[in-house]
């Protein structure tokens, strides 16, 4: 009886290892959708435009992220906002990187993000501006191996 139980446990573990290996292999074989050259999203009262350079971003170097933030109702560029970005991989836990974007000119903010593995990353943009409610939105960026 104990021999039969041991066989069931060993076969179960072997099956689990095989399924995990197949799932990991399929993830690397499936094509990833390229990142759009320009992405636009609504974040509360703001319209946020994201540009990624280079596109697609390689895993070997940081991606340059440029954000344009416009107060949609007034059509005004948003200056002096505190803009933070957090990036996390959508398919596996690679941790979360938090980055503060720096204002380059009125309404234009820039940051560098290191996307350390090929695949789809979610970048959450959080905007805090004096006299306005905080807002956030997300963008998907696909990184590729060089």
TrEMBL record:
Residue ranges annotated for the YtkA-like domain, each copy included: 41-126
InterPro entries recorded: Ig-like_fold (IPR013783), YtkA-like_dom (IPR032693)
Organismal lineage: Bacteria, Bacillati, Chloroflexota, Ktedonobacteria, Ktedonobacterales
Record Pfam families: YtkA (PF13115)
Name the record gives this protein: YtkA-like domain-containing protein
Domain of life: Bacteria
């Amino acid at each position: 009886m104990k021999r039969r139980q041991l066989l069931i446990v060993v076969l179960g573990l072997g099956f689990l290892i095989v399924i995990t290996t197949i799932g990991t292999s399929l993830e690397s074989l499936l094509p990833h959708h390229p990142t759009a050259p320009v992405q636009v999203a609504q974040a509360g009262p703001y319209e946020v435009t994201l540009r990624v350079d280079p596109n697609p971003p390689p895993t070997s170097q940081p991606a340059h992220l440029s954000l344009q933030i416009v107060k949609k109702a007034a059509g005004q560029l948003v200056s002096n906002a505190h803009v933070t970005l957090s990036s996390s991989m959508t398919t596996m836990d690679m941790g979360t990187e938090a980055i503060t974007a720096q204002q380059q000119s009125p309404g234009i903010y820039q940051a560098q993000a290191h996307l350390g593995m090929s695949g789809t990353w979610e970048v959450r943009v959080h905007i805090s501006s004096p006299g306005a409610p905080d807002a956030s939105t997300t963008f998907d960026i696909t990184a590729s191996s060089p």
